[in-house]
Amino acid sequence: MTGLMTGVLVAGAVMLVVASALLLVRLVVGPTILDRSMALDVLVSVTVCAVALYAAQSDETFVLPVLLVLAGLGFVGSVAVARYASGADDVEAEREESS
Length: 99
Description:
By secondary structure, the protein is an all-alpha fold. It has one domain (2-98): Orthogonal Bundle (Helix Hairpins). The chain is 89% helix and 0% strand.
């Protein structure tokens, strides 16, 4: 049973490393700010998965609040970037409505 669990943990870790490498490429190459922000958001999700994988491997519960904070940070960061990216359109729409 422990050999199977070790194999699953190693396979999960390898997939997370590959996903992180591909995300870093998208982060550097991404032509727009939205591509880069999406890459950062998915990178935070991969980090949450990696911390969860560590928690499953080590049977530690002290990392569960870290998972909550990372998930909240990823959500707030995504909303902030989306709001910033669409901010110019909102100002123009408000000007059109007021005139």
